[in-house]
């Protein structure tokens, strides 16, 4: 598949940026430089690398699972697995998210591949927002981080399950069965390029899996790097004192923590420990907003979504997720907080 010159420029910038930060982090002693490096630059470098190094293992997991789906899962198998009724198909997707240990860093390539294989868009959406929270690794990390307040653990899982089905249903009503993926030129023209490439490795499924995983990793990696860099800038220059000053307001604090989760772009396997550190400042509802919203939508996976889905779908998706999570947290605070 031939790439455009713009694609090569994007990949070159992303790789150069990654190389620069790695070189500065590993080989440069800033204390010995003749000029004083601003502390903010060092913070950006440290945060950027921490996000990238935290996310890369899960990206590798995601692209490998995506490659396995491409090689071993047929369109017919997906059609047989899913119920014919569009509404009933939402529930298996939510349950499927509770099985696989996949975070929001890895879920985008997997859902993209499943939709290309024939999974309906709204079912993919349920998996997209539910799997990063409902999986057993996230449950265990949340349970450990909130040992003294188990209510938050169970509320996070319950809200994620219900919201994933609701969000999938809303997006089904908006988009029905329309195609919202961005396709390459080769895929659009009878997918000739992809078929030609697959034919070369058809006889060896291991080779085919590795081929697709490598291709997917480099395609996803540049958007991860760009998103991590933007998130590190926000984390460095954001005045957190403004956020903590509004932590006790039951209407404003959930929205503040949702914005904070979006900017921090933490991996869902680790975000519970960060949320627990805010326990003395923010209410339980605000912490839940942080824990539910961040894995569904954050800065780095927004960039990935815009890269592989149509802009209108991404904007509607973010809007629906944001409104749904905020409304659910307000309802939870009003009627369910403290009943566990």
TrEMBL record:
Bilayer topology term: Multi-pass membrane protein
GO cellular component, one term: plasma membrane
Keywords: Cell membrane, Membrane, Transmembrane, Transmembrane helix
A Pfam family matched in the record: ArsP_1
Protein's cellular compartments: Cell membrane
Chief location bin: membrane
Keyword Disulfide bond attached: no
The UniProt record lists the keyword Transmembrane helix: yes
Regions crossing the membrane: 12-28, 48-73, 85-111, 123-146, 153-175, 220-238, 250-266, 272-293, 313-335
Family: Belongs to the UPF0718 family.
PANTHER family the UniProt entry points to: UPF0718 PROTEIN YCGR
Protein name in UniProt: Permease
């Amino acid at each position: 598949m031939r790439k455009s010159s713009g694609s090569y420029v994007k990949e070159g910038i992303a790789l150069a940026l990654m190389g620069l930060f790695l070189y500065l982090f590993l080989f440069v002693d800033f204390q010995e430089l003749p000029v004083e490096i601003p502390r903010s630059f060092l913070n950006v470098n440290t945060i950027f690398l921490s996000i990238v190094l935290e996310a890369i293992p899960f990206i590798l997991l995601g692209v490998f699972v995506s490659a396995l789906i491409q090689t071993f899962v047929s369109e017919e198998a997906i059609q047989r697995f899913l119920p014919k009724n569009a509404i009933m198909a939402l529930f298996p997707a939510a349950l499927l998210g509770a099985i696989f240990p996949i975070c929001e860093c890895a879920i985008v390539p997997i859902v993209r591949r499943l939709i290309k294989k024939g999974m309906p868009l709204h079912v993919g959406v349920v998996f997209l927002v539910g799997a990063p929270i409902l999986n057993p690794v996230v449950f265990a990390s949340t349970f450990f981080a909130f040992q003294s307040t188990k209510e938050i653990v169970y509320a996070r899982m319950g809200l994620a399950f219900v919201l994933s089905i609701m969000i999938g249903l809303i997006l089904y009503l908006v988009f029905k069965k329309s195609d919202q993926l961005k396709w390459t030129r080769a895929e659009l023209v009878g997918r000739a390029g992809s078929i030609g490439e697959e034919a070369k490795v058809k006889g060896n499924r291991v080779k085919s899996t590795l081929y697709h995983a490598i291709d997917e990793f480099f395609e996803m990696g540049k958007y991860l790097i760009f998103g991590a860099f933007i998130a590190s800038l926000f984390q460095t220059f954001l005045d957190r004192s403004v956020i903590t000053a509004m932590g006790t307001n039951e209407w404003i604090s959930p929205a503040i923590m949702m914005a904070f989760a979006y900017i921090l772009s933490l991996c869902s396997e680790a975000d519970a420990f960060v949320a627990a550190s805010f326990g003395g400042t923010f209410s339980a509802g605000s912490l839940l907003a942080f824990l539910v919203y961040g894995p569904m939508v954050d800065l780095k996976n927004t960039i990935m979504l815009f890269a592989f889905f149509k802009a209108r779908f991404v904007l509607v998706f973010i809007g629906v997720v944001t409104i749904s999570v905020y409304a659910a947290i307000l309802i939870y605070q009003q009627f369910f907080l403290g009943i566990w």
